[in-house]
Amino acid sequence: MTSIGIFGAAGRMGRAIAQVAAEGGLPIAGGTDRDPAGDIAPGIPMTADPLTLAEAADVLIDFSVPGALSAHLDACVAAKTPILIGTTGLEPVHHALIDQAAAHIPVLQTGNTSLGVNILAALVERASASLGDDWDIEIVEMHHRHKVDAPSGTALLLGEAAARGRGIALANHSERGRDGITGARAPGAIGFAALRGGSVAGDHQVIFATDGERIEIGHRAENRIIFARGAVKGARWLAAQPAGRYDMKGVLGL
Ligand SMILES: NC(=O)C1=CN([C@@H]2O[C@H](COP(=O)(O)OP(=O)(O)OC[C@H]3O[C@@H](n4cnc5c(N)ncnc54)[C@H](OP(=O)(O)O)[C@@H]3O)[C@@H](O)[C@H]2O)C=CC1
Ligand SMILES: O=C(O)C1=N[C@H](C(=O)O)C[C@H](O)C1
């Protein structure tokens, strides 16, 4: 049976993944965390060394911080162990590192591992392809008060889907963090707004607005277990793939 290693094991997602793996009877090879001293669950060995963990596991799941990604990828490439990356707040430099690693090992990177959000992304791409660019696209997300990055990885994933539908590059058309005298909305822009508060696990709404009418479609995550289930399913799928870069579409058959 596929054994799982968890980078960021003591975090909110790391613990949810350990719970889902244990409920499914999947072996957990161990975990790392910034401070690996604390036990996250009985019987899960914690280590400070990503390579030790990558050598012990059949597949790695990473829900930690962007600053740790380079070391995690190096360890997985050295150990030839596949890695699923759920960490968000990634910059172009991180995506370049992922592309390099994916030449040697299977790497799955996604801003959201849930089935619902990936279905929503497919719907957004279709709607965006069907509607003219006189329909403005805005993406609104809300998360718990502890979240450190914005827009969320999911909002960006949905923005990429909308841009794909329109045949444009998101990087050249996104409007983020409006404040003050911003000027009118740029034609064809994809806008992002981020709310933070309380314990919200993850709400996303995509609004298509034109003169006289609006379409609104969205997703609400009620807990983190939905992300953990998707991540464990994705990791088991990834362990059987050849080297390359993947997202959740292959896992979910979308
Ligand atoms: N793709 C998806 O579906 C989802 C993605 N996420 C993303 O996953 C990430 C983690 O989220 P969440 O679990 O809520 O955050 P947490 O802050 O609870 O967990 C992150 C963990 O990583 C640890 N960490 C920090 N540095 C390192 C390091 N160098 N090596 C190993 N571990 C380290 C942190 O330790 P310490 O606290 O001591 O710094 C913390 O325990 C975020 O980027 C979030 O946006 C979340 C949910 C779903
Ligand atoms: O930090 C979180 O909690 C979440 N992060 C992901 C994101 O940035 O989209 C996924 C989910 O919405 C929860």
Automatic annotation (TrEMBL):
Primary localization class, coarse: cytoplasm
PROSITE patterns noted in UniProt: DAPB
Positions annotated to bind NAD(+): 8-13, 33, 86-88, 110-113
Ranges where the Dihydrodipicolinate reductase C-terminal domain occurs: 116-252
InterPro entries noted in UniProt: DapB_C (IPR022663), DapB_N (IPR000846), DapB_N_CS (IPR022664), DHDPR_bac (IPR023940), NAD(P)-bd_dom_sf (IPR036291)
Localization of this protein: Cytoplasm
Chain coiled-coil ranges: none
Pfam families linked to this entry: DapB_C, DapB_N
The keyword Oxidoreductase appears for this protein: yes
Residues annotated for (S)-2,3,4,5-tetrahydrodipicolinate binding in this entry: 144, 153-154
Residue ranges of domain Dihydrodipicolinate reductase N-terminal in the record: 3-112
Biological or metabolic pathway of the protein: Amino-acid biosynthesis; L-lysine biosynthesis via DAP pathway; (S)-tetrahydrodipicolinate from L-aspartate: step 4/4
Binding sites annotated in the UniProt record for NADP(+): 34
The protein's role, per its UniProt record: Catalyzes the conversion of 4-hydroxy-tetrahydrodipicolinate (HTPA) to tetrahydrodipicolinate.
Subunit structure: Homotetramer.
Protein name: 4-hydroxy-tetrahydrodipicolinate reductase
Organism: Sphingobium olei
The gene coding this protein: dapB
